[in-house]
Amino acid sequence: MNDSIKEMNEEAMIEQEFQSLLNDYLKTKHRKRVEIITKAFNFANQAHKGIRRRSGEPYIMHPLAVAKIVCNEIGLGSTSICSALLHDVVEDTDYTVEDIENIFGPKIAQIVDGLTKISGGIFGDRASAQAENFKKLLLTMSDDIRVILIKIADRLHNMRTLGSMLPNKQYKIAGETLYIYAPLANRLGLYKIKTELENLSFKYEHPEKYKEIEQKLSATAAEREKVFADFTAPIRERLDKMGLKYRILARVKSIYSIWNKMQTKHVPFEEVYDLLAVRIIFEPRNKEEELNDCFSIYVAISQIYKPHPDRLRDWVNHPKANGYQALHVTLMNRNGQWIEVQIRSERMNDVAEQGFAAHWKYKEGGGSEDEGELEKWLSTIKEILDDPQPDAMDFLDTIKLNLFASEIFVFTPKGEIKTMPQNSTALDFAFSLHTDIGSHCIGAKVNHKLVPLSHKLQSGDQVEILTSKAQRIQPEWESYVTTAKARAKIASILRKEQKNHQKMGEKLLADFLEKAGFKMNDENVEKIVKLHGMNSPEELFTAISYHRITLGESERNLLKNKQSTSWKKLLSFPFVSKTGDKQTTETQPKEKINTKQILKLTEKNITQYKMATCCHPIPGDDVLGYIDESGELTIHKRQCPVAARLKSSYGNRIVATQWETRKEKEFLVTIYLRGIDSVGLLNEVTRVISHQMEVNIRKLSIESNDGIFEGNIQLYVHDVEDVRSLTNELKKIKNIKEVTRIEN
User: How far apart are CA 184 and CA 137, in angstroms?
Assistant: First the structure.
């Protein structure tokens, strides 16, 4: 009886959720195609019947939630809502894409097919192929942008319900979200979703830090509200006089952004000054006056408060690549605080919140016409996809370079405006014009002055590229570029050249061996590889081709001498290491690590694992474990850039890890100090460290320039708590302005 009551309750809950989706859809400006949405819901509900999510709720609640995000938060229509409802049907049930096409038509079937191809077991063991999945994601995106928009909605709902997953899965999914999905959402203009994805990822990776910033934001809320009210009062008065319809909102910096700033600038929460921004959203008097109204508001408010001369951002005349438009100005309030004000029309605000999808809302009859910069970005990705790369992770990093890039505007010699990612170089610009121009580039003239290929461009630069037919791509060019397109092209051409050199070197070696009377076989090649200390035959062939190795007597002598049996025996035990007087081989079976449980790090077991040299974790840091190909476990800080790559590509090798140490073992950390130089300052620093805190110093390097004192101190501590106490004590020293722990 209880089961049937539970079932009835669940059916009522599902029906209620579906009605809520329909009501939301009916409020939109889209055509009211209720029938096909109802059909898709009934089909999906039937297909997923009896299946539950890890949280215990009926599975259909997930597609319903994704459809609601697609409808409300991205603003897409019935085709996308149906595709969202059906997105897991082909992956998880016996239905095929053909079945979907027969019932719902080719468009929905194509989107569902695209979503199925990239599902790739996000929560499953196949997750190590995440970089490959990302490649597929971009391929399907170039067919229909809605695939990626629904995928982002799917990921957002998974992040909102991540609490029911195992900890190691949480780290993997959160890391992957921060590495791939948040930048994608940002690039597609889904600012609100990007912010929520970042915050949720941060919440699961660093729960204590998240809570700490949340509490501090809450404690300072009343103070911010007063600043906002005082700052906006005269602005409201002025805008009312102008007769504009408007609303003014306070925008508080997201928790993840605050933490990011604290990390990159090495400042405490109290020193993050741009927590508050103000948004003015207005209704233009008419369509033609929209841009003029933006600037009229700017002029009006800059008569009330002094604007920062270098902080005017005109995204109105030059929209960002994702379609974002707004005018950003930074004003100083009466208390000497800089406050950023964003001026947007209601249309601009919709585009900023809902990104790409909102463009359709403002087009006659919908459909997709040329989307300008975003279209260029998509075509760049298509170009990169056309050139298959050997390593999926390299591909991921290449794309990643362009995902978070802000734009600069540069001019051609004829005055044409070109949008480039921030930090682009002259060589990037050359490749953006054409691969041939990039390949033969010898330099550039920026604002009529000659500059090298690696010169970083600034907004407003006029750039002329100089070329020569004799110029060839050099390996060091890879370090001169920052854009995905240029890096992919350079890597591709270098790979082709490398292959040609390998073939040439292989032929030279074959000719040499034939003349010397030896066979060109794997055994002989391997001996010559070892003789020259190379890592592979390919490396050897390349070195021969470039004449870095000259073949002669040493190779002939090596191949004439037959090696003795005892030598061969010795070769068969390459991994012998000594421990005291005992001999132990490294091939002994390693203890199996259970990735489903949290690994506790104690003084007893810590010596079994490696501490990552990229981030030097110590007890108290938020950490995770990564099992490499040889089964060894390395401990990384969760926010370490290397760990970010591992989470998003080898997620099934991540182990949730916690410290349980008792201040018995010491760890090496580096503290960075900066301040105003004064007599006895160094003496005071060492007194606090050695006597007051009783900490051992391993290395000290201090410099003083123009009255500024800075240096690094390497010392031994037990855990993060020791570091915190030590930095707090050092900050009390007069004239010390900055104390922070650094990675190396």
Answer: 11
